[in-house]
Amino acid sequence: MSPTSLSLQVTTVVLAVTLAVATGLGWERARGWWRWPTRFLALLCCVVTAFSVAGVAVNRKLHMYTAWGQFAGDNRAPADPQPVFETAGGGSSAGRLVTVTITGRRSGIELPAYVYLPPSYDSSTARLPVLEAFAGFPGTPQTWFDVADPREVVEREIKAGRMPPTVVVFPVQHASPTRDSECVDAAGGAQFATYLSLDVQDYIGAHFRVRTDRAGWGLIGFSTGGFCAANLALRHPDRYAAAVSMAGYFTAITDGTTGDLYRGDSRLRDENSPLWRIENLPVPALALYLACARDDVKGFAQLQAMAAAARSPLKLTTAVVPDGGHTGAAWKAMTPAALDWLSAQLGGPAVDAPADHGPAGNPAAEGRSGLAPATGVHPPLPPRNRRPTPAASHRRV
């Protein structure tokens, strides 16, 4: 009887109903001083079983836990997680994390972001490639660090030669912790697609030594963040060369957490659905990597639909692990290989500054539909030590 089984759901319902009926029948039968603690315990058991019914129902819908062992171990957040903005000490053996506030000139959105700078950032003059990383919902940049420890993973991959030195940006993607922006430009509402794909790039390009051409930027996200990564890459192929979606979905949703993002405009909703876009619109020359656990039922079905619809010049790579469900443990296991793949799709550090796509205040950037190619010399990267991905199947379309 697994955490997602119908038998478990039936068991919790029967137990909850039985306890409720027994409590009602025995309420007046209790006598003496112990009737009050007896009633309290009976009510407490009723509450616990009612929550169990709800919890199992939610888990069966989302497939967050597919095995009992996942309730302990890898899925637990660190007891005392370090703040993401803590800066590493001096020296070149470790990177550092800084916090910034990004004011969107186009979107009008102002939110914080965390920026990871690799160990060589301060000692090199090269402009580095950038990854923009999105969490799920509910979630913040801190969620990435609780789930996958990307700082440690990135530094390990750089040291092993599987990634070049890379800057990673973790933007806040929701204005409210209770409202899912879906990273889209809402009809008559917040323009999060503009903020995340244009304003964030402009700010990072103006304040950090990074590449500003499309070959230097990639996206990665898990769950809702995976949807964001795929959607933004397909909508802005002039800004991004590649994207990774881990356990993402590819059809735009509206529910109680999103509100009415599209104001009934079905065309706008379709245009924010990656699956619809590759089925109905010309596809860009873009590289996508979709990863999922096979027992993440909804996520796996979405991955299969995308794989079936993919066509040239879109390059689609899939990676499927056998189990893990829709959980942080599964995403953590997927992250190293996903980062290695994403880095391989991007250009490496550029010795000279590539052509700028125009940070705030650069009039040459206004109205441009694409980015100029990078200029300067791009030193060859060392041969990448390919990371084996045990228990994962891969397919490239």
UniProtKB/TrEMBL annotation:
The chain crosses the membrane at residues 38-58. Signal peptide: none annotated. Keywords: Membrane, Transmembrane, Transmembrane helix. Residues 350-397 are annotated as: Disordered. The keyword Transmembrane helix applies. InterPro entries: AB_hydrolase_fold (IPR029058), Esterase-like (IPR000801), Mycobacterial_A85_antigen (IPR050583). This is Esterase. It comes from Planosporangium mesophilum.
